[in-house]
Amino acid sequence: MVADDPDLVLHVGDYIYDVTRGGGVRAHETQRLPMTLADYRARHALYRSDPALQAAHESLTFALIPDNHDALEQDSDDPAQRRRRAAAWQAYGEFLPLRRRARRGSDWLPIHRSVDIGRLARLYLMDTRQVRRDEFACASSSDPAFGLGVYQRACEELANPTRSMLGKVQEQWLAHDLATSPAVWNALVSTVLVSPLALRNGADAYVYPASWSGYPQDRRRLLATLRRLGVANPVALSGDLHSTLVAQVVERAGDDPRRSLLPEFLGTSISSLWPEPLADPIRSALSANPHVLHYDPAHRGYLLCHFTAASLTVETRLLSTALQPGGVMRTGERFAVLAGNPAIHRL
């Protein structure tokens, strides 16, 4: 990444892992979850001992938003969990280049903001974790063996209008900044997949509730806002799936991708693996999701995005291995979106 020399690195969550992942990519100092400030400081210090990561921070400008493994998966009324989140936020601010940090002892971190790159692009860094509730609303009626329990049956509770991932304050901020944007490109930076993803477990319809599919009312309002305001060249830049995924964002899986309002480019993980029980349900359901144009769970790496007034080009930068030093980086797929048309073109 340092050799590619990007003007800006967008890191969209899970800078650290609170859990110990399988696959041996990074051995944590303990198997137990971090709970205290000392625990989170030790976890960040471990990650920052990596010479390649040190070089990246020495050379490159970062804009970061946290996801579930940086702190908590969702909001909580449990005092112990709120103290844990306060510890996570303090360590996050101590180790990472943030403009606004949580006050010492506070369990609230100011996250959402807009970043203007002249009049070329406006980046909307969204907070998808601190407000969300009931991510696991459908867990009790789901098969825990399907996708390691990460995917859940699409139950009626998902349509509850009181469920929200962004919250009213953030939705109002987003609508205001979209309405006043002078930028050629308007990039929605999300820690999780915006596009719907229809999965099947036998005869049952399943979704990935950690993504916007778990909060369909939020996604409908977002798309309605983009349409109502006539936002210039919206694009979603996302993460979380430890895979590369390229899609035309539609309201419902199965909708004609030619009616998409915006493209989505979801970057893979830098080092963490994506186990086959999580990859196979998505791969097996691609025929039911024609808006998903590309899915690659096998490689680690990142996306290299190039904005101009005329186009956005995106390269998938793929590492031959993340299991030991010396992996070789290459460009895999290349895509382009022309200003004024949301259609994704494969180059």
UniProtKB/TrEMBL annotation:
<dbReference type="InterPro" id="IPR052900">
    <property type="entry name" value="Phospholipid_Metab_Enz"/>
</dbReference>
<dbReference type="InterPro" id="IPR038607">
    <property type="entry name" value="PhoD-like_sf"/>
</dbReference>
<dbReference type="Pfam" id="PF09423">
    <property type="entry name" value="PhoD"/>
</dbReference>
<protein>
    <submittedName>
        <fullName>Alkaline phosphatase D family protein</fullName>
    </submittedName>
</protein>
<feature type="domain" description="PhoD-like phosphatase metallophosphatase">
    <location>
        <begin position="1"/>
        <end position="315"/>
    </location>
</feature>
<dbReference type="InterPro" id="IPR018946">
    <property type="entry name" value="PhoD-like_MPP"/>
</dbReference>
<dbReference type="InterPro" id="IPR029052">
    <property type="entry name" value="Metallo-depent_PP-like"/>
</dbReference>
